[in-house]
Amino acid sequence: MVIIDPRTGEAHEVTRSSINNDNWYLYDREADSIVEDGGPTQEPDHTQTPCGLEWIRGKKLKFSMK
């Protein structure tokens, strides 16, 4: 799995240990990549999520990692 750096557009490998259980991540399931690390904020507004992406909590994301 990779995370996309929003400043540079570069992809970086992500490991289970680098994912924070309490953070919200904007996840692209089809590409198996994290588009944004939303941090440990309140639950994001799912109605404003772009098509094909989903906000997922770090703990659940770790569980679903291949």
Overall description:
With 66 residues, the chain is mainly beta. The chain has one helix and five strands. It has a five-stranded mixed β-sheet with strand order 2-1-4-3-5. Helix content is 11%, strand content 33%.
Short description:
The chain has 66 residues and is mainly beta. The protein contains one helix and five strands.
List the helices and strands and how they pair.
Elements: E1 2-4, E2 11-13, E3 24-28, E4 33-39, E5 54-57, H1 58-64
Parallel strand pairs: 1-4
Antiparallel strand pairs: 1-2, 3-4, 3-5
Q: Give the strand order of the largest sheet, numbering strands 1, 2, ... along the chain.
A: 2-1-4-3-5
Report helical residue fraction.
10-25%
Low-pLDDT stretches are: none
SS-derived structural category: mainly beta
User: What does the overall shape look like?
Assistant: globular
Provide keyphrases for this structure:
globular, 5 strands, 66 residues, mainly beta, five-stranded mixed beta sheet, single chain
